[in-house]
Amino acid sequence: MEYKISNRLRTGAIILMILGALGVGYGFIDSHSVNEDNIVEFLANESHHDGEHATEAQGVEEVHGESTDDIEKDHGHGAEAEVEGHELSHEEHVLHQLHNRPYAALYVAAFFFFMISLGVLAFYAIQYAAQAGWSPVLFRVMEGITSYVLPGGLIVLLIVLVADSHIFIWMDENVVAHDALIQNKSSWLNKTWFMIRGLIFLGGWSTYRHFSRKFSVAQDLADINDNSNFKKNFRISAAFLVFYIYTESMMSWDWIMSVDPHWFSTLFGWYVFASMFVSGITVIALVTIYLKSKGLLEFVNDSHIHDLAKFMFGISIFWTYLWFSQFMLIWYANIPEEVTYFVTRIEDYNLPFFGMVALNFLFPLLLLMNSDYKRIPWFVVMAGVVILFGHYLDIFNMIMPATVGDRWFIGIPEIGSMLFFAGLFIFIVFTSLGKHPLLAKGNPFIKESEHFHY
Amino acid sequence: MASHYEAPIRRPLITGEKSFHDVTVDVARPVEGKANKAWWIVFSIALVAFLWGIGCIIYTVTTGIGVWGLNKTVNWAWDITNFVWWVGIGHAGTLISAVLLLFRQKWRMAINRSAEAMTIFAVFQAGLFPIIHMGRPWLAYWVLPIPNQFGSLWVNFNSPLLWDVFAISTYLSVSLVFWWTGLLPDFAMLRDRAVRPFQKKIYALVSFGWSGRAKDWQRFEEVSLVLAGLATPLVLSVHTIVSFDFATSIVPGWHTTIFPPYFVAGAIFSGFAMVNTLLIIMRKVCNLEDYITVQHIELMNIVIMLTGSIVGVAYITELFIAWYSGVEYEQFAFLNRATGPYWWAYWCMMSFNVFSPQFMWFKKLRTSIMFSFFISIVVNIGMWFERFVIIVTSLHRDYLPSSWTMFSPTFVDIGIFIGTIGFFFVLFLLYSRTFPVIAQAEVKTILKSSGERYKRIRENGDSLSGTG
């Protein structure tokens, strides 16, 4: 079945990108409207507007009193404050947070869409390695989504390069000079090595994606009894999964955990994996339902949707399991160097932090428990939207506390960034979907998959 | 459930020219026949080990925990090591029957019955340790929140040891129900075939009057699916809670967030290794090579390889984060494991768990029965060492150097462990003579789709009618 991205979708994607770019641009201009010259005025105005602040702090003097408290809560940039003789004034601190915001918003959105495509790539490889009989009809959908891995990943690295210490405090030489803890890590956490690692990860992932796509298409044209391309794909999928399990962990330590360079958790890599995996599967379901609604995937039946919805359900619970394990163990032991991570989040991000658990656990649990519901497209779409929003918040909760602290808000910079990357994602994915037929007809399991019924 | 079409590249799961009747006869043969000499010899050895273990337990309880090798610093060692080891082994059964059911893996059908039996017998052994390692085991019932004469004195629900009580007891009961439900049609088969009245009576009793009507089968399937859906989170949570015993603490080397999924992966790893050990022998002595084929062993080896690699990633993660954390206690804990007085245990663990499963990447090795058997034993030893290393090396050297010490087990520690191995084999040997060791009702559902004979008929384009 041939597919071409429709003009409407392409225009829509471009509009999203333009709107998003405007939002991002506004975010940068707006955040820099406060600078060294008018920050005192800004804070005074703010305390005047904000009821809570107004009662607590009558003047700038009082705000100064609060500042140590503020800075301690903010763990990542607490690094700045913990150093003797290098304590930032409250104004400088707030100014950093304000200036970090558009970068962080952009980074969260870029990583979110990138991780979706990487999650799909892992799912795709697992389907090959496990010789699944139900999913080959969805392979082309997955291949389309994974076309975003390379551009998406490069953009993430580019943002890191440009944003520098606006996101990763350990990239600020002044901070490192006064922080013994970060100095001890600098053989790992330095910009050059970080970028080289990032490129190695991306290189490995996109190489796999390139060849798996190539073999998958070649299998279409091959002779009926010639499964050599399939076998090659099987082998490289297994190899990729080994590479992936290591690099995914390291990528999460690098790209996310190191925004709080003092904090560490052994579970972190797998936790991020669960988030990307469930988001990826959700997007497979959404794209499949969209294409199906256009009448383009007549071989996909509601059993396929049912299976995808089961994965959304199961992996959502798995994500919650890992979230809870990480949270509970740190909460229970209450060791100061670890627990600050959650203290900041509970104090400053109460609603997004716990709201995310509701979105990522309770909603999928209740919505997708019933097997009939898992076969109703609009129901799966509803659940999918909730899950995706929940996992956006998950990434938001990982990045924002370390970069903007309690000055977070989901406003124009955040929404603009999301719109921009949503547009880019749709543009790249659907353009790629149009390049090859939507049925991987040469796959030896394709007939099993077409007749799949659960 | 599955489609009627099966891709030709899938290999048959039942080899030989089996018909439905052949399956029945093959499965019933060990139960209906008489035990041979070899069985009696092995049974006697297991029984002696079991009795020796009981002796050691009685000695411990009547004399005191001091007869073990524990000391004031290392106050958990063989007891909890064995506990976690047995619980871990018990996980593969549920994995095979529940998780593989959810993933529609047809190959599970030949092995699920024995894997579940193994689960239940292993959890029995595990369940002994929380009681006998108590100083006052006769007060063990105090862990239960029952109203009492002490002004309703209750337990504190904050302790992972109490969560263990709930986890293990729930796990045992759910596994037992799941196992028994699956046994109903098979017991009914034995009942219907029994010639001696005593056997008929027994199998009639345990098969609960199963008559195999359409409605019964439909509900049976649904119950299995629901139980599988419940057992999967259960199996994850049980070993997670076991891992919480360590991970909630503040002991360097114990307090780490990766423990929950990593213990679960380790449990699957060791559990599958034990299933492999048992089934490689069972297929031979019970003449079940047509059902438990080399492909089954290969697939189990792949699971072992996969979970072994996950465990390997976890080891490396722990090492990296210990360095990355900059916490010197944490760094020392891992340095001590690798180079301290228990270095040999650490390196046994590393080489047995991380390196040995990597041999399974070679098709020649993973399809070799001898090699699989060897590796399955190696993995089980390695996983025992894993628990030992985690528990003892973290305890014997932690925050205060003045509390540093060593641990060595006494003959009672060892005797109890040997006793549990004996008990396990007593139960498993009795099981293999009285229970249908293969879920024949399930195997019959895949005979026509995955049996060698039927696959050949279909590939030749002939009709299946009249071949039943």
Structure, explained:
The complex is a heterodimer of chains A (454) and B (468). With 454 residues, chain A is mostly helical. Chain A has one domain. Chain A has 19 helices and no strands. Chain B is mainly α and 468 residues long. Chain B is built from 16 helices and no strands. Chain B has helices at 20-32, 37-63, 78-102, 112-132, 160-193, 197-206, 214-247, 259-285, 294-325, 328-339, 343-355, 363-366, 369-396, 411-434, 440-450, 452-459. In chain B, helix 4 runs antiparallel to helix 14 and helix 9 crosses helix 11 (343-355). Chain B is globular, with a radius of gyration of 24 Å. The interface between A and B is large, with 40 and 39 residues.
Instruction: Briefly note the structural class of the backbone of chain B.
Output: mainly alpha
Number of helices of chain B: 16
Distance between the termini of chain B: 20 Å
Shape of chain B: globular
Hey, roughly how much beta strand do the residues of chain A contain? under 5%
Keywords:
heterodimer; A: about 450 residues; 19 helices; globular; B: about 475 residues; mainly alpha
Fold blueprint:
The complex is a heterodimer of chains A (454) and B (468).
Chain A: H1 7-31, H2 39-49, H3 51-56, H4 60-73, H5 75-82, H6 90-129, H7 139-146, H8 149-163, H9 173-177, H10 180-185, H11 191-221, H12 228-255, H13 268-293, H14 302-333, H15 336-348, H16 350-367, H17 377-403, H18 412-433, H19 446-450
Chain B: H1 20-32, H2 37-63, H3 78-102, H4 112-132, H5 160-193, H6 197-206, H7 214-247, H8 259-285, H9 294-325, H10 328-339, H11 343-355, H12 363-366, H13 369-396, H14 411-434, H15 440-450, H16 452-459
Helix pairs in contact in B: 1-15, 2-14, 3-4, 3-7, 3-8, 3-13, 4-5, 4-8, 4-14, 5-6, 5-7, 7-8, 8-9, 8-13, 9-10, 9-11, 10-11, 11-13, 15-16
In short:
The complex is a heterodimer of chains A (454) and B (468). Chain A has helices at residues 7-31, 39-49, 51-56, 60-73, 75-82, 90-129, 139-146, 149-163, 173-177, 180-185, 191-221, 228-255, 268-293, 302-333, 336-348, 350-367, 377-403, 412-433, 446-450.
